[in-house]
Design a protein that fits this description.
The complex is a heterodimer of chains A (243) and B (298).
Chain A: H1 2-13, E1 17-20, H2 26-34, E2 44-48, E3 65-69, E4 81-87, E5 101-106, E6 122-125, E7 138-144, E8 158-163, E9 179-182, E10 193-196, H3 200-212, E11 224-228
Parallel strand pairs in A: 1-2, 2-3, 3-4, 4-5, 5-6, 6-7, 7-8, 8-9
Antiparallel strand pairs in A: 9-11, 10-11
Chain B: E1 3-9, H1 18-27, E2 36-42, E3 50-55, H2 59-63, H3 66-74, E4 79-83, E5 86-91, H4 96-106, E6 111-116, E7 119-125, H5 128-134, E8 144-150, E9 165-168, E10 171-179, H6 182-192, H7 201-214, H8 219-229, E11 232-239, E12 243-248, E13 257-260, E14 264-268, E15 284-286, E16 294-297
Antiparallel strand pairs in B: 1-8, 1-14, 2-7, 2-8, 3-5, 3-6, 4-5, 9-10, 10-11, 11-12, 12-16, 13-14, 13-15
The chains are: A alpha/beta (243), B alpha+beta (298).
Chain lengths: 243, 298
């Protein structure tokens, strides 16, 4: 097992700081992460036994790596600003909610509203994401290897949502802007969301997103693009009778 | 909020631990609802006994000599096992309806928590830890059970407003969410002859299922009906004499996680509730789909 020994030695060199949530409290973990200052040598963190805890590594604002060994509950990595968080398990509702920058990788599945309201950064779900993935996204890039549930990208405003599998009902309902790329089938499109032409610039953008998310063996040409028809931007007086 | 749990055992060797496992699951979700908590445990069936779980705010007064008075009233042997504010009355299955009426006549202040061949229901105001301690739930064995910790929205924080709600023999239900058409459905069910103890929306859902099953539907079909007939937010977990079912409304904003191994099927509002179950690291863990009925029967 020489490879394992090598990687262990490497992580010791970086002085990976280990927090066992069976021993330390979640508050101690998050406080220690919040105490980080620019240029800190404590760049590698490992969280053991999260056991579905809420708010693991929320509000981190330094470019550190955090490996969470297990499944987490609500809001993991919320408001992330610059850190790289890997969840070696599944994530509960609201993973990466309001992320500003950095990246979050979920090795398992994500529950509802993954990446909600995210303003930047990259969220990768290697399994499936459930309902409302990317709801009200404001600039975040989300790549889901599996499927996404209903009402995803609801009222999405900016950013890119890439789905290698299928999308549930009402994709992109009331979408403002944001680009949605889906490789599989879409159960139904929401109000004002339409299929759009995949132009060269979109293929290039999508290739870049797939590369950043570590996706290989999948071509941008396999996807369809969806986005806003922009008919809800202004009130149509012909609809006045409906109110 | 509210937190709900359910556990359906496939492996008989776990049955003595059902109460302990379900208690642990419920206590882990305490911060989802601090108002009241309750648990229904389905125990081993007995051919010559059925059970009524009763509750009184004045147990010392109401439970004293109830066994002898009740036995006299119904003309059959009766035993009573008191646990704090609750007691389990056991008598012959054929006498159970008669016993229920006699209890209400003999002790008007006693409330019926539930009745059936196997179910026992314990619920009170307070945190899950206090409630499971008070009724020694950890020591109970059984085949399956459901539990609830409540953050009240629809009706008062009282013992009767706590879940599980039972409206039919060995049937009970826990609910996370709120229903918006419960007053209408309650009126329709009252017309059918169903009786209600509270103004609570969840009691209506329980009675709806009981009514559907009384009309010959199985648990799965009855749960399917909730999707068209009940309006509002819900994740329901339901227990019957030999079964356990789950359904979420089509919007599915109330959380739910399930796990299955060769030994059990488990439900929790959150993954936190499942982390101490045996073999959870290798269990199949998934989020139940919206508007999809799941049920298991022994």
């Amino acid at each position: 097992m020489p490879a394992t020994k090598l990687s262990k030695a490497a992580s010791h060199d970086q002085a990976s700081r280990i927090f066992d949530l069976d021993v330390s409290s979640l508050r101690e973990l998050n406080q220690a992460l919040h105490n980080l200052t620019p240029g800190s040598n404590e760049t590698a963190w490992e969280v053991l036994h999260p056991k579905g805890s809420h708010s693991v590594a929320v509000g981190v604002d330094q470019p550190v790596t955090i490996d969470v060994r297990g499944s987490v509950g609500y809001y993991c990595g919320g408001m992330n600003s610059g850190s790289t968080i890997t969840v070696h398990g599944s994530a509960g509702p609201g993973v990466g909610e309001n992320m500003m920058s950095g990246s979050i990788i979920v090795k398992g599945d994500a529950s509802q509203y993954a990446g909600a309201t995210g303003k930047g950064g990259l969220l990768v779900i290697e399994g499936n994401a459930s309902s409302r993935c990317g709801i009200s996204m404001k600039g975040i890039d989300i790549v889901v290897h599996g499927n996404i549930g209903h009402m995803s990208a609801f009222m999405a405003q900016s950013g890119n949502l890439v789905v290698l599998g299928d999308a549930g009902d009402a994709l992109g309902d009331s979408i403002y802007e944001a680009r949605l790329f889906v490789r599989g089938k879409v159960d139904s499109l929401g109000a004002d969301c339409i299929a759009k032409e995949m132009r060269a610039e979109h293929l290039e953008l999508l290739q870049g997103l797939l590369d950043r998310a570590g996706v290989t063996g999948v071509k941008p040409s396999e996807f369809k693009r969806y986005g806003s028809a922009r008919t809800l931007y202004n009130f149509n007086i012909d609809n006045a009778d409906a109110y | 909020m509210c937190g709900i749990v359910g556990l359906f055992l496939k492996d008989k060797s776990l049955e003595p631990k059902l109460g302990a496992m379900l208690s642990e699951m419920l206590v882990s979700l305490s911060d989802r609802g601090p108002d009241s908590a309750g648990i229904a445990i389905y125990g081993a069936p007995s051919s010559n006994e059925a059970k009524i779980t009763i509750q009184s705010a004045k147990p010392a007064r109401d439970f004293r000599d109830l066994d002898t008075e009740l036995a006299k009233a119904i003309g059959a042997p009766v035993s009573i096992a008191v646990k704090s504010t609750h007691a389990v009355v056991r008598t012959a299955p054929a006498k159970i309806d008669e016993a229920r009426e006699a209890i209400q006549a003999l002790r008007p202040d006693i409330r019926i928590m539930g009745a059936g061949d196997v179910v026992e229901i314990y619920k009170e105001v307070g945190l899950p830890e206090a409630v499971v301690d008070r009724f020694d739930v950890r020591k109970m064995s059984g085949t399956h059970g459901i539990g609830h910790t409540r953050m009240a929205t629809e009706s008062a924080v009282t013992t009767m407003g706590a879940h599980p709600f039972s409206t039919g023999a060995d049937q009970c239900l826990v609910h996370n969410g709120s229903l918006s058409n419960h007053n209408n459905v309650r009126r329709e069910l009252i017309r059918e002859g169903m009786k209600f103890e509270t103004e609570n929306d969840t009691e209506v859902a329980a009675a709806y299922l009981s009514s559907q099953m009384a009309h010959g539907k199985n648990l799965g079909e009855a749960l399917e009906g909730t999707l068209s007939d009940l309006d509002g937010f819900f994740t329901f977990v339901v227990g019957t004499k030999n079964g356990f079912g789950v359904v979420r409304d089509p919007i599915a904003c109330k959380p739910a996680v399930m796990a299955e191994t060769d030994q059990y099927v488990a439900f929790g509002s959150e993954y936190r509730a499942l982390t101490k179950l045996p073999g959870i690291d290798n269990a199949r863990v998934w989020e139940p789909e919206p508007a999809t009925v799941y049920f298991w029967e022994h």
